[in-house]
Amino acid sequence: MVELLQWGRAGRAELQGQAVAGRHIAVLVQKHEQGRLIQESLRAAGVAGARQGQDSVFASAEAEDLERILLAIAEPGNDGRLRAALATPLWGKDARELEDMRLNDTLETAVWERVDAYRRRWERDGCMAMFRQWLQGEQVMGRMLLWSDGERRMTNLLHLVELLHQEEQAQGPGREALLRWFARQRQAPVGSEEHLLRLESDADLVQILTIHSAKGLQFPIVFCPFLWSDEPGRKDAGPVICHDPDDPLTLLADFGSPRQEALRQIAREEEAAERRRLLYVALTRAQYRLVLHLPEGLGQQSPLAGLLGGGGKDFSWRVALEGLAAAAGDAVAVVSLDDRAEAPRWTGNTAPEKVRAASFTRHLHMGWRVGSFTALSSGGRGERPDYDDTIPAPDPLSGPGPVAFPRGAQAGICLHSILQRWNPQRGEEDLLVHIDTALQRYGFSTQWRQDLRQWLPAVAATPLWQG
């Protein structure tokens, strides 16, 4: 990937006339842990990557550190809480500085006075004003952005304080109530869409996402580093969850019945089928280039190995892929990674473009006056066209009902999001919550709320087959 980015910067790799950049690349993984591993590896190579998933910002390390800081500011006289807050990466005091404070009353008093000033600001002006004063007074941003993942951490911190401010505005002033709310979110970090981790930048970031999340999406270049994995998702012991062979629409949970082993085999077959479906999704997301990383000697029982001709202990990725490449011509290439002592590192643009602020030469009249629409439009030239007349009439075939819902990939993702998250057993209230969230997130009018309320239960209740 680093070499591909270097080729793009040198003009050797282009996509439709544009140099290949991070925004053209996606890395698909099977689990969120793999996504974290890829992001750390890219960061070590100097490549900025954005991991997309369902992680809550309240589950981040910054949430834990911020809670300690808020508790210390709320009660500056508690020496244990204060030292725990000072030792967090956000505040940045090391063991030597903490020991110097313990031995030097002047230093300790200076720190206590600053913390007490933050407390008074919180009482007077609220959490957000206190946070901004603390951020500047402790030089937090400048220190954090020196770290390799500083942008990620700073994004999490600002996101958390924004959520605190929203809650404070909703419930009114009161430190204790706000701290209890924050503690509840930390203990059970499963909330609304606004609690999910945000992208840390709008720059040319490599996207890292799960194969599940990539359904319905396409990317110019896709890397799949873990398709060789043959690790089973279900255990060979304990309860078995599968579909009832006598009623395929019913899900069973078997905790030890006489037919548990037979059901376990059905569960294995269902899991294998799901893994094959995910393999298909991963292999069909790339528009121009798909890159697979396949370690020889591993993954012989994976779905990809089965797709390439079998598996077993004698299976060889190179042999299977060279046969595929011979049949595919120039469409497939098999390349061995170099045995280099050090991997290449991306250095970005070494000479950033120099920019200069535009000069403003107009003269603005600073006086105020009361005007009217008639006066403002008096200099117009005749009647302006009525653009509403140019809007085409609705298709007479698309009357009320599901066919009237907007078409396109965005609409499909919106409906898929609702059906994926809605639990029919929780009733209509749960459905309406997910409808409202999806319509807002994907930019559709709330006028579809009642229509979706009627259509989607009918979709969920439709049998998939007869017999």
Order of strands across the biggest sheet? 4-5-3-6-9
Provide the helix percentage: 40-55%
CATH level-3 fold name of the domain at 57-195: PCRA, domain 4
Global outline = globular
Helices and strands in order:
Blueprint: H1 2-9, E1 14-15, E2 18-19, E3 25-29, H2 32-44, E4 49-52, H3 61-74, H4 79-86, H5 95-103, H6 105-125, H7 127-137, H8 140-144, H9 150-171, H10 175-187, E5 206-210, E6 219-224, E7 240-244, E8 247-254, H11 260-283, E9 286-292, H12 303-307, H13 317-328, H14 373-376, H15 409-421, H16 428-441, H17 449-460
Helix pairs in contact: 3-4, 3-9, 3-10, 5-6, 6-7, 9-10, 15-16
Structure write-up:
This protein is of the alpha/beta class and 467 residues long. Among the domains are: 2-54 and 202-231 and 265-293, Rossmann fold; 57-195, PCRA, domain 4 (Orthogonal Bundle); 406-460. It has 17 helices and nine strands. The protein has helices at residues 2-9, 32-44, 61-74, 79-86, 95-103, 105-125, 127-137, 140-144, 150-171, 175-187, 260-283, 303-307, 317-328, 373-376, 409-421, 428-441, 449-460; strands spanning 14-15, 18-19, 25-29, 49-52, 206-210, 219-224, 240-244, 247-254, 286-292. The strands form three sheets. A five-stranded parallel beta sheet has the order 4-5-3-6-9, with helices on one face. Strands 1-2 form a two-stranded antiparallel sheet. It has a two-stranded antiparallel ribbon with strand order 7-8. A hairpin with a 2-residue loop joins strand 1 and strand 2. Helix 3 (61-74) crosses helix 9, helix 5 crosses helix 6 and helix 6 (105-125) runs antiparallel to helix 7. The longest helix is centred in the middle third of the chain and has 24 residues, at 260-283. The chain is globular and about 75 Å long.
